[in-house]
């Protein structure tokens, strides 16, 4: 029997009240579905939904974006990247290109793409020009990049890889001692690729209820109900509320491609720092397609000092679920979609952009100031 969103909401409202409960939804797609469906307002007041580190655009290292911009401006190449990446700002003087979009306006040949196959097509259409694919993303977008490498790419195509794994960021939060949430909704598409078992550590090691969800209100509310019921009964397990796509073991072919073309390493997350075993780099067997080896490096030591979030931007705190988007002092004032200061206001998976699109247009600081004056 299919249970509707309204029925799941009713079940949640019928659960015993147990004090404030914070549920983190890791995935940016989940946050978009939650906000656009108005689920926060529909849930009982004691439940808080906390957006987590599920936006690859938001955590892509600033120095990687800077390097892509400089390659496009200074080398005779075509640079391709997933569309959201083109507007991510870097920390440079106002006279310099702050994003790939601005570098394109200055004459760089930068083209947005939606899939790795488009990168291959562009390379084949321009056999005499080096094409660099700036590939940033989590497992769901990195797996197709790995498949592209294994299946073979044109000699003129190279990859500037900035791939990340999702679960290590959640592990870091849980191991910090102050995770800021009582239950977890794990990302459905990541689990489709990597398997649900990847999230078992949340329950086994940290004794926190977890459920994997899809992107419909029904699946998300089912996952919320599951974790709330687990908390009530103090019986914790990993629930799969996205069984239509998530199966035990995940996608073995995608995992095979990843293990063949990539290696896992300790990687930097913008504004957060190094997270152990959280990034992908190309395997040595594919070094002839590694843009970092083929072109001069533009990621000098100065970038490491400049590579945090822009001054006043709290995107890192938003990504870690420490504050809500509108609690950033720049939100709705200096930082808006038409003029993003931080990366969380750029992508459709960035919590700040999602909250703005969902109708939250003012900073919480402004609201508090107005209350104080009133």
Characterization of this structure:
The strands form 2 sheets. This protein has a 6-stranded mixed beta sheet with strand order 4-3-5-6-11-10, with helices on both faces. A 5-stranded parallel beta sheet has the order 2-1-7-8-9. It is an alpha/beta fold. It contains 18 helices and 11 strands. The protein has 3 domains: 5-56 and 167-241, Rossmann fold; 58-165 and 276-306, HypD, alpha/beta domain 2 (Rossmann fold, 3-Layer(aba) Sandwich), CATH 3.40.50; 315-373, no CATH class. β5 (131-137), α8 and β6 form a beta-alpha-beta unit. The protein has helices spanning 5-14, 28-36, 39-42, 56-59, 62-74, 100-105, 116-125, 139-151, 167-175, 188-194, 200-204, 217-233, 252-261, 291-294, 301-306, 315-319, 351-357, 364-373; strands at residues 21-25, 47-51, 78-82, 110-113, 131-137, 157-164, 183-187, 210-213, 238-241, 262-269, 273-282. α1 (5-14) runs parallel beside α12, α2 (28-36) runs parallel beside α17 (351-357) and α8 packs across α13. Helices cover 40% and strands 17% of the residues. 52% of the residues are buried.
